[in-house]
């Protein structure tokens, strides 16, 4: 895994980047396997995506989704830190799962368990989580274990913000054919650098990303219908 490499990249970018979120290319965790097809998402900042060319989503698929449980996809050292802070980190995944379900159901999608060929399988993962100051001081980038488990004792810095990185893929629920992928980032609460962050500070980011998943699906279904109407 490359989570710790992500943190090093974030440090390198801190002095020159115009955004306080590391670039999407630097956040590739390995969860998606192949990132070579991803392109910049014109609708969402700090995001990349790929959709299978000529995907006939409305024609070939019903609005039925098998939702896999959200998971962390991080290196073993970070996974150990997550396990040590089990209650808080479990709340993050539980909230994300609930947020995705809520958004999909609001969009008219049916959550199912059957893996028929007209259903989609959605696989979501949290691949990174940092807290960083708005003025990009390199010492303020901290990996997920510290964000959940400890306060930062820094002086002379602005309030910090929770940043969460996500990767997701959509497949044919029966055959496993890959249909779409994305890499995204979202922002949670602003917090004082001396305050211990909690799961509550991530909820805004989780809700925003769940909404992004639903909007992307809506757009893919709509564009598929438009292409079909043009023929």
UniProtKB/TrEMBL annotation:
This is DUF3313 domain-containing protein. Keywords: Signal. Residues 1-19 form the signal peptide. InterPro entries: DUF3313.
